[in-house]
Write a structure and sequence with these properties.
alpha/beta; 15 helices
């Protein structure tokens, strides 16, 4: 399933234009199918707007979102899965990020008809997948036509698109306002769908945007998760080829992959580090992936207490049950040569120190 399937015609055409229409011949049939589906999306979007547009626009956020942030492959998915065991919160599901234009009316029947389009496990790490599993809202923003570094996946052999959206530095004010408008609408849409529940969002690109998110949603909470760089780096190098192959309109060559991973990291954490002090200390905390794996219940209880989220005892049993289910999960094993380790040490040195990985 390509998330471009959820776009509207004008946004899909704009995406192809930004990629200079450099489609590989073998991917042209896929592009043609997606172009056809975009017309279907437009019809359902107009219907959803007629039925619910006013209600979505008038939705008030009684509780600002909780944002899980951190580099790709740092454990954001695991933390998201743990936190959404609490049914007092809501979250964007895989279908809801792939079909933001019309999921209010299409989700019940499309997820039943096309259950086979989503694999049971994610190809990059074998974690469980499915239409109802929690998913990154960055996919929804991309589908909605917002600028996003995820646009790069469409044309992975072209120069990367929208890397400046990893920390919002250099983004024109007009483009920033458009991005805010898309995100605000999507959060209201999720809030309306879930009867006013507080939304738990998860998206690595949000890591370098925390100031902008806090300005948009006063009182928003942030949980940043770190992981040992020697695990993050090779796992991210595995992630992008898998996504580029699945989502791209080109056959990916994976050129300059290492530099792209380093560049994204540096942009993301230049934003996070610079913006961190602008966040109320009561609304942000750092956790380590290794600590969550070692004691998921204790780690979640600490998050609830530090951010004053809710009564943890209400969800303790569900967290324990989910943690027990994950005990057999095996992470991918990566072997790094000394040259690669040295490059990571040099370019991620502040991260090593700040999150306590210098001693490892």
């Amino acid at each position: 399933m390509r998330f471009w399937h959820g776009m509207l015609p004008t946004d899909f055409f704009r995406l192809l234009k930004r990629g200079r229409f450099r489609l590989h011949p073998l991917r042209m049939p896929m592009a043609a199918i997606i172009a056809t589906v975009t017309g279907f999306n437009l019809t359902l979007y107009l219907l959803q707007q007629i039925l619910f547009g006013r209600k979505i626009a008038e939705t008030q956020l009684e509780h600002p979102p909780i944002f899980i942030v951190g580099h790709w492959r740092s454990g954001t998915t695991l933390l998201h899965e743990l936190m959404v065991r609490d049914d007092r919160f809501a979250y964007p599901s895989t279908y809801q990020v792939f079909a933001p234009h019309h999921f209010l009316i299409s989700e019940p029947w499309i997820t039943r008809m096309f259950f086979f389009l989503i694999p049971k496990q994610r190809p990059m790490d074998n974690m469980a997948a499915g239409w109802q599993r929690p998913q990154e809202d960055e996919f929804a923003l991309t589908v909605l036509g917002s600028r996003s570094p995820y646009s790069r996946m469409a044309f992975p052999n072209n120069p990367p698109l929208d890397s400046d959206y990893l920390n919002m530095e250099g983004v024109a004010q007009a483009d920033l306002e458009k991005w805010k408008a898309k995100l605000d609408w999507y959060v209201k849409l999720l809030t309306y769908k879930n009867g006013g529940k507080q939304i738990i969002m998860k998206s690595p690109p949000h890591t370098g945007r925390i100031k902008y998110l806090a300005d948009m949603f006063p009182g928003a909470k942030f949980v940043h998760i770190s992981r040992h760089p020697y695990s993050i780096y090779p796992s991210t190098c595995r992630l992008w080829p898998a996504l580029d192959d699945a989502q791209g309109f080109q056959i990916p060559k994976n050129e300059h992959l290492a530099e792209y991973v380093h560049d994204c990291f540096e942009r993301m954490y230049s934003g996070y580090d610079a913006q961190y002090d602008s966040i109320d200390p009561a609304n942000i905390m750092d956790v380590r992936y290794e600590d969550i794996v070692a004691d998921p219940v204790g780690a979640l209880e600490s998050i609830y207490a530090t951010l004053e989220l809710a009564d943890f005892d209400y969800v303790r049993d569900k967290i324990e049950a989910f943690a027990d289910e994950q005990k057999g999960y095996q992470t991918n094993v990566h072997n790094l040569d000394d040259e690669t380790k040295q490059a990571i040490r040099e370019r991620w040195s502040k991260y090593f120190t700040r999150y306590g990985y210098d001693a490892d």
